[in-house]
Amino acid sequence: MRNSSGIRSFLPETRLATKSNLQAMLMLYKSVYLKPDEGTGGHGIMKITRNGSRYIVRRGTVSQTYASYDRLYGSLHRLVSGRKYVVQKGIDLLRHRRRPFDIRVMVQKNRANELVVTGMVGRLAKAGKIVTNYHSGGKPLPVGTLLHSRLRGEKKRRYMNKIAFVGRKASLALGQAYRGNRAFGVDIAIDSHMKPWVLEVNTRPDMTIFRALRNKAMYKRILKYSKFKK
């Protein structure tokens, strides 16, 4: 996906989580996320923040402070127990009622095998948590509701179209490697400057979060598209 010029500017820097890469990223950015290389529905994600010579690690609702990088890495190395992780630039997420949120964009192929956006839903983190995933306690809300304090009317509509555009571009880019795939779930964060960032693209997206919305029209449309075949 990083080889696609159309989406590159929306991708936060991400590296394999080696000892040297993690240290370099923490020198570049005040905070980073340590994530399993394979998506896990929000499980196993840690936020690491550098505060002078100290490092603060948050997992779920628990925080721990380390006095040096070597102590931090030693603890993380034991914790991940041989699994492959990546380290990603930390995004200062927009908040709704003091809780961070991101957006899941559902992109599916229509009968003509063209990728189209069929739904968008906001995911509001559970109080005290760093992840927004539905199965980790995240609350699904309409995107318009989450953007309402920042944008209104036509500006909000145009911005939501931009989010949909980024979601589709990310799916088109990844679709080059997953040509048989008929659906992608694109997780998009919005920073405090209203810049969208593609955090992850899921090749087997879960539809149940859309079913949790009060208005079922989006969920019904997604179900309809899921029945289209090649």
From TrEMBL:
Organism for this UniProt entry? Paenibacillus rigui
Q: Please provide the record's keywords in A-Z order.
A: ATP-binding, Nucleotide-binding
Query: What is the protein name for this chain?
Result: ATP-grasp domain-containing protein
> What GO MF terms are annotated?
ATP binding; metal ion binding
Where's the ATP-grasp domain?
3-227
Q: Record's Pfam families?
A: ATPgrasp_YheCD
